[in-house]
Amino acid sequence: xxxxxxxxxxxxxxxxxxxxxxxxxxxxxxxxxxxxxxxxxxxxxxxxxxxxxxxxxxxxxxxxxxxxxxxxxxxxxxxxxxxxxxxxxxxxxxxxxxxxxxxxxxxxxxxxxxxxxxxxxxxxxxxxxxxxxxxxxxxxxxxxxxxxxxxxxxxxxxxxxxxxxxxxxxxxxxxxxxxxxxxxxxxxxxxxxxxxxxxxxxxxxxxxxxxxxxxxxxxxxxxxxxxxxxxxxxxxxxxxxxxxxxxxxxxxxxxxxxxxxxxxxxxxxxxxxxxxxxxxxxxxxxxxxxxxxxxxxxxxxxxxxxxxxxxxxxxxxxxxxxxxxxxxxxxxxxxxxxxxx
Length: 341
Description:
Helix content: 40-55%
CATH class of the largest domain: Alpha Beta
Number of domains: 2
CATH superfamily of the largest domain: Glycogen Phosphorylase B
């Protein structure tokens, strides 16, 4: 009988859903027979508490009907306990359990002590833990995790990428892409645009905070060389990245940004603050440069410094090669298949 694997997680939305879709694809292509409980569809249809209860029941029903050998969960740091209980129910029925944990690098600093205790306690019903970075794996183990813990970085499929990437010299605009949020430096980028009035600045993403959106729109109206295009996905997103010279990303948030992978693999050079797991993706002077988070002066100085360099194409080429070697489905396939067994 083929190895059957039941996935639990969303298929629409942010980076976790992207990784869920790509992970399922890797296993399907390797011959695994898979099924899915789409938690985002449940939460969109029902109140959160009811959605979780229904999800737990669905796990039990699918285990009986689908008979998976393994249950594989995509989970985030926020709401970890509720999410991980899917694997508790799976373990109670004798299934092998894998948690793909999208967590910050330093769990002790990022979590309330009670939440950290819940994460460590979940090893009673989780057989294999996957985290995004080596610092996170070390943090997990330093706080008491004794089960196997594996590092699989965020990754993307190369199938939808443009076949031809234009050279840096053929590009001009500066890009921000991601959630439109103060913590990610969008207002500092807008201030830099006001100073560099001869350059074109493009913002792509959606707001979660109406007050921030209103404030941003007012400032944008006074900055004629800047445009906000709203959210973009798929081919449209890749086209705007591939047309951009620099990615501006002065974030304050501890995260593993998919944006950096997508930008470097398309030859767009990042100026990014060294927070969270950024150092796993961008190496200063090799495939991008570091700037200070939330600092307009540092952002402007970084742009000037990059524009003066004679090796921009080499830096872009480094980014393309490094992303292909480390952050694509092909790069992580072997590790994922080894974990599932």
